[in-house]
Amino acid sequence: MISRVESAAATRRSLLDAAAGLLDEGGPEAVTLRAVGARAGVSRGAPYRHFADKGDLLTAVAAEAWDRLADRAVQWAADPLTPAEEKLRNMLTGLLAVGREQPHLYRLMHQAPAADEVLRAASRSQGPFVAVLSDLVGEDQAHRYGALLLTSVHGIIGMEASGQLTADKWHTDADDILTLLTGMIGHR
Protein backbone atom coordinates (compact mmCIF):
# COMPACT_ATOMS: atom_id res chain seq x y z
CA MET A 1 0.00 0.00 0.00
CA ILE A 2 1.25 3.45 -0.89
CA SER A 3 1.81 5.81 2.01
CA ARG A 4 0.28 9.25 2.25
CA VAL A 5 3.70 10.86 1.76
CA GLU A 6 4.38 8.75 -1.33
CA SER A 7 0.96 9.60 -2.70
CA ALA A 8 1.52 13.31 -2.16
CA ALA A 9 4.93 13.10 -3.84
CA ALA A 10 3.43 11.25 -6.81
CA THR A 11 0.67 13.83 -7.14
CA ARG A 12 3.19 16.69 -7.00
CA ARG A 13 5.29 14.95 -9.66
CA SER A 14 2.22 14.53 -11.89
CA LEU A 15 1.32 18.19 -11.44
CA LEU A 16 4.83 19.34 -12.32
CA ASP A 17 4.93 17.12 -15.40
CA ALA A 18 1.51 18.37 -16.50
CA ALA A 19 2.55 22.00 -15.99
CA ALA A 20 5.75 21.47 -17.97
CA GLY A 21 3.79 19.90 -20.82
CA LEU A 22 1.27 22.74 -20.91
CA LEU A 23 4.10 25.28 -20.79
CA ASP A 24 5.84 23.63 -23.75
CA GLU A 25 2.61 23.55 -25.76
CA GLY A 26 1.26 27.02 -25.10
CA GLY A 27 3.52 29.10 -22.91
CA PRO A 28 2.75 30.39 -19.43
CA GLU A 29 -0.73 31.47 -20.50
CA ALA A 30 -1.67 27.82 -21.04
CA VAL A 31 -0.68 26.90 -17.49
CA THR A 32 -3.58 27.27 -15.10
CA LEU A 33 -4.00 25.26 -11.93
CA ARG A 34 -7.27 23.92 -13.27
CA ALA A 35 -5.70 22.82 -16.58
CA VAL A 36 -2.74 21.31 -14.76
CA GLY A 37 -5.02 19.34 -12.45
CA ALA A 38 -7.11 18.11 -15.37
CA ARG A 39 -4.05 16.99 -17.32
CA ALA A 40 -2.60 15.28 -14.25
CA GLY A 41 -5.91 13.51 -13.65
CA VAL A 42 -6.34 14.77 -10.09
CA SER A 43 -9.14 16.57 -8.29
CA ARG A 44 -9.65 20.30 -8.87
CA GLY A 45 -8.37 21.07 -5.39
CA ALA A 46 -5.21 18.95 -5.60
CA PRO A 47 -3.03 21.58 -7.29
CA TYR A 48 -3.87 24.07 -4.54
CA ARG A 49 -2.69 21.64 -1.87
CA HIS A 50 0.75 21.56 -3.48
CA PHE A 51 1.16 25.07 -4.89
CA ALA A 52 -0.05 28.39 -3.54
CA ASP A 53 -0.73 29.73 -7.02
CA LYS A 54 0.33 29.58 -10.65
CA GLY A 55 3.49 31.55 -9.90
CA ASP A 56 4.52 29.03 -7.25
CA LEU A 57 3.94 26.17 -9.69
CA LEU A 58 5.92 27.85 -12.49
CA THR A 59 8.74 28.59 -10.05
CA ALA A 60 8.95 24.88 -9.25
CA VAL A 61 8.97 24.03 -12.99
CA ALA A 62 11.82 26.50 -13.64
CA ALA A 63 13.82 25.27 -10.64
CA GLU A 64 13.46 21.66 -11.83
CA ALA A 65 14.74 22.63 -15.27
CA TRP A 66 17.84 24.18 -13.69
CA ASP A 67 18.24 21.08 -11.52
CA ARG A 68 18.20 18.84 -14.61
CA LEU A 69 20.91 20.99 -16.21
CA ALA A 70 22.88 20.84 -12.95
CA ASP A 71 22.64 17.05 -12.83
CA ARG A 72 24.00 16.81 -16.38
CA ALA A 73 26.73 19.37 -15.66
CA VAL A 74 27.85 17.40 -12.61
CA GLN A 75 28.07 14.23 -14.74
CA TRP A 76 30.01 15.96 -17.51
CA ALA A 77 32.38 17.67 -15.08
CA ALA A 78 33.12 14.40 -13.27
CA ASP A 79 34.08 12.47 -16.41
CA PRO A 80 37.88 12.06 -16.20
CA LEU A 81 38.16 10.93 -19.83
CA THR A 82 36.54 13.99 -21.39
CA PRO A 83 38.75 17.02 -22.07
CA ALA A 84 37.72 20.23 -20.28
CA GLU A 85 36.95 22.03 -23.54
CA GLU A 86 34.52 19.27 -24.55
CA LYS A 87 32.89 19.33 -21.09
CA LEU A 88 32.40 23.08 -21.47
CA ARG A 89 30.87 22.68 -24.91
CA ASN A 90 28.53 19.94 -23.64
CA MET A 91 27.29 22.20 -20.86
CA LEU A 92 26.69 25.14 -23.18
CA THR A 93 25.05 22.90 -25.77
CA GLY A 94 22.72 21.60 -23.05
CA LEU A 95 21.59 25.14 -22.27
CA LEU A 96 21.26 25.93 -25.97
CA ALA A 97 19.09 22.83 -26.42
CA VAL A 98 16.63 24.04 -23.78
CA GLY A 99 16.40 27.40 -25.56
CA ARG A 100 15.79 25.74 -28.91
CA GLU A 101 13.53 22.88 -27.90
CA GLN A 102 11.64 24.44 -24.99
CA PRO A 103 11.64 28.20 -25.57
CA HIS A 104 8.85 28.88 -23.08
CA LEU A 105 10.70 26.97 -20.38
CA TYR A 106 13.96 28.75 -21.23
CA ARG A 107 12.29 32.16 -20.87
CA LEU A 108 10.72 31.04 -17.59
CA MET A 109 14.13 29.96 -16.29
CA HIS A 110 15.48 33.46 -17.01
CA GLN A 111 12.45 35.46 -15.95
CA ALA A 112 13.08 38.40 -13.65
CA PRO A 113 12.80 38.68 -10.78
CA ALA A 114 13.87 35.11 -10.15
CA ALA A 115 12.56 33.38 -7.05
CA ASP A 116 15.09 32.15 -4.49
CA GLU A 117 14.30 28.53 -5.41
CA VAL A 118 15.20 29.24 -9.06
CA LEU A 119 18.36 31.14 -8.12
CA ARG A 120 19.54 28.25 -5.91
CA ALA A 121 18.95 25.72 -8.68
CA ALA A 122 20.67 27.93 -11.28
CA SER A 123 23.61 28.39 -8.94
CA ARG A 124 23.88 24.63 -8.52
CA SER A 125 24.15 24.25 -12.29
CA GLN A 126 26.83 26.93 -12.47
CA GLY A 127 29.13 25.25 -9.92
CA PRO A 128 30.40 22.48 -12.22
CA PHE A 129 30.49 24.94 -15.12
CA VAL A 130 32.83 27.26 -13.21
CA ALA A 131 34.92 24.29 -12.06
CA VAL A 132 35.50 23.21 -15.68
CA LEU A 133 36.31 26.77 -16.65
CA SER A 134 38.80 26.94 -13.78
CA ASP A 135 40.63 24.02 -15.37
CA LEU A 136 40.85 25.98 -18.62
CA VAL A 137 41.46 29.58 -17.56
CA GLY A 138 42.35 29.41 -13.89
CA GLU A 139 40.22 29.97 -10.85
CA ASP A 140 40.80 33.73 -10.84
CA GLN A 141 39.30 34.13 -14.35
CA ALA A 142 36.65 31.40 -14.37
CA HIS A 143 33.69 33.56 -13.31
CA ARG A 144 34.58 36.28 -15.79
CA TYR A 145 34.77 33.84 -18.69
CA GLY A 146 31.68 32.05 -17.41
CA ALA A 147 29.67 35.26 -17.57
CA LEU A 148 30.98 35.90 -21.09
CA LEU A 149 30.00 32.42 -22.27
CA LEU A 150 26.56 32.34 -20.62
CA THR A 151 25.61 35.78 -21.91
CA SER A 152 26.84 34.75 -25.35
CA VAL A 153 24.68 31.62 -25.33
CA HIS A 154 21.73 33.68 -24.12
CA GLY A 155 22.27 36.07 -27.04
CA ILE A 156 22.64 33.18 -29.48
CA ILE A 157 19.33 31.73 -28.29
CA GLY A 158 17.57 35.07 -28.63
CA MET A 159 18.98 35.82 -32.08
CA GLU A 160 18.26 32.32 -33.32
CA ALA A 161 14.68 32.41 -31.99
CA SER A 162 14.00 35.77 -33.62
CA GLY A 163 15.41 34.67 -36.97
CA GLN A 164 18.29 37.12 -36.81
CA LEU A 165 21.04 34.50 -36.57
CA THR A 166 21.03 32.97 -40.03
CA ALA A 167 23.81 31.39 -42.03
CA ASP A 168 22.85 33.57 -45.01
CA LYS A 169 23.40 36.74 -43.03
CA TRP A 170 26.32 35.81 -40.74
CA HIS A 171 27.91 32.88 -42.62
CA THR A 172 27.79 30.88 -39.39
CA ASP A 173 25.28 29.31 -37.05
CA ALA A 174 24.82 28.76 -33.33
CA ASP A 175 26.78 25.52 -33.26
CA ASP A 176 29.74 27.08 -35.09
CA ILE A 177 29.69 30.01 -32.68
CA LEU A 178 29.75 27.64 -29.69
CA THR A 179 32.70 25.82 -31.22
CA LEU A 180 34.47 29.13 -31.78
CA LEU A 181 33.80 30.34 -28.23
CA THR A 182 34.87 27.14 -26.51
CA GLY A 183 37.89 26.86 -28.79
CA MET A 184 38.96 30.40 -27.91
CA ILE A 185 38.65 29.62 -24.22
CA GLY A 186 40.40 26.27 -24.57
CA HIS A 187 43.32 27.72 -26.51
CA ARG A 188 43.68 30.89 -24.49
Descriptive report:
It is a single chain. With 188 residues, this protein is mainly α. It is 79% helix and 0% strand. It is built from 10 helices and no strands. It is globular. The mean pLDDT is 94.
Supply the key terms.
transcription regulation; 188 residues; MT1864/Rv1816-like_C; single chain; mainly alpha; DNA-binding; globular; transcription; Transcriptional regulator
Summarize the structure.
With 188 residues, the chain is an all-alpha fold. Helix content is 79%, strand content 0%. The mean pLDDT is 94.
Topology diagram in text:
Layout: H1 4-26, H2 33-40, H3 46-50, H4 54-78, H5 84-101, H6 103-109, H7 116-137, H8 139-161, H9 167-170, H10 174-186
**Proportion in helices:** over 70%
Rg from Cα: 19 Å
Mean pLDDT: 94
Apparent shape:
globular
Query: Which quaternary structure do these chains form?
Result: single chain
